[in-house]
C-alpha cells in the first residue's frame, strides 16, 4: 500500500525545506508549483488559453509568460486571479494525478503531493494524510519580504490570498512547527513518518 501524503503550508512557511527533506529520504515528490510552470510553457494548451484571456501584454520578448506582470494583475484583482486559476488548475490536477497513479502502480511505499493551495483548492481527497508546515505570522511576513524583496503591503497581499496558517493547521493530520532549527523540523518529520510506518 502506498501512503499518499499532502504537503502544504503558507507562502514562506518553509514548505520547500520540508520537501527537500522528503527528497533526501528518497520519497518521490509531485510538486504542484513545478507542474504549474510546465503547463504554462509555450506550446501547452493552457498557455494558449492564458494569452487569449489576458492578452500579449503579459508575454516576455521570448514568448514566455511574464510572471511579474501577470502576478501584479492577479494579486490586485480577485476576479482575474480566479479566472487564471480556472485555466491553470484543471491542467495541473490532471498531470499530478497521472504521476501519483504511476508511483502507486510502481508500489512506492510513500509519495508526497506538494500542493501550496491544498485546502483552498479542496484537493484533500487526493491524499490520505496532510502535513502542514507552520510558522507564526510575524516570521512568515519577515521571511517573505526578505525572500522575494517585497514591500510589506505586497507581502501581506500574497499572504491574504491564502488561507491563514492557523486555519490550515486545524485541518492537518500533522503540523510541523518550523519556527525553530532545521534539525528540529526534520525530527518532527521523521517522527510522523515513523508513526505512519513509512520510514
How would you describe the overall organization of this protein?
- This protein is an alpha/beta fold and 199 residues long.
- The protein has 2 domains: 1-28 and 110-199, Rossmann fold, CATH 3.40.50; 33-107, P-loop containing nucleotide triphosphate hydrolases (Rossmann fold, 3-Layer(aba) Sandwich), CATH 3.40.50.
- The chain has helices at 15-24, 32-39, 45-54, 67-76, 78-105, 137-148, 152-160, 165-170, 182-195, and strands spanning 3-9, 29-31, 110-114, 129-134, 174-177.
- A 5-stranded parallel beta sheet has the order 2-3-1-4-5, sandwiched between helices.
SSE class: alpha/beta
Largest sheet: 5 strands, parallel
* Residue runs with pLDDT of under 50 for 5 or more positions: none
Global shape: globular
Strand order of the largest sheet: 2-3-1-4-5
One letter per element, helices H and strands E, the order comes to EHEHHHHEEHHHEH
Number of strands: 5
Percentage of β-strand residues: 5-15%
Q: What is the helix fraction of residues, given as a range?
A: 40-55%
At the fold tier of CATH, the topology name of the largest domain is Rossmann fold
Broad CATH class of the largest domain = Alpha Beta
Summed up, what is this model?
The chain is of the alpha/beta class and 199 residues long.
Observed structural traits:
199 residues, alpha/beta, Rossmann fold, 2 domains, 5-stranded parallel β-sheet, 9 helices
Amino acid at each position: 500500500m502506498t501512503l499518499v501524503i499532502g504537503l502544504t503550508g503558507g507562502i514562506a512557511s518553509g514548505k520547500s525545506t520540508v520537501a527537500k527533506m522528503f527528497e533526501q529520504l528518497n520519497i518521490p515528490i509531485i510538486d504542484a508549483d513545478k507542474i504549474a510552470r510546465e503547463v504554462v510553457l509555450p506550446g501547452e494548451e493552457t498557455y494558449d488559453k492564458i494569452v487569449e484571456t489576458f492578452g500579449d501584454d503579459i508575454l516576455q520578448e521570448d514568448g514566455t509568460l511574464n510572471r511579474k506582470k501577470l502576478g501584479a494583475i492577479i494579486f490586485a484583482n480577485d476576479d482575474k486571479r480566479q479566472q487564471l486559476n480556472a485555466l491553470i488548475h484543471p491542467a495541473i490536477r490532471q498531470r499530478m494525478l497521472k504521476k501519483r497513479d504511476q508511483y502507486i502502480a510502481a508500489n512506492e511505499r510513500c509519495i508526497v503531493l506538494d500542493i501550496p493551495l491544498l485546502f483552498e483548492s479542496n484537493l484533500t481527497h487526493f491524499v490520505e494524510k496532510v502535513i502542514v508546515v507552520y510558522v507564526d505570522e510575524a516570521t512568515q511576513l519577515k521571511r517573505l519580504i526578505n525572500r522575494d524583496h517585497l514591500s510589506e503591503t505586497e507581502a501581506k497581499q500574497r499572504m491574504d490570498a491564502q488561507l491563514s496558517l492557523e486555519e490550515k493547521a486545524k485541518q492537518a493530520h500533522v503540523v510541523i512547527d518550523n519556527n525553530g532549527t532545521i534539525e528540529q523540523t526534520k525530527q518532527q518529520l521523521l517522527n510522523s513518518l515513523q508513526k505512519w510506518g513509512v520510514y
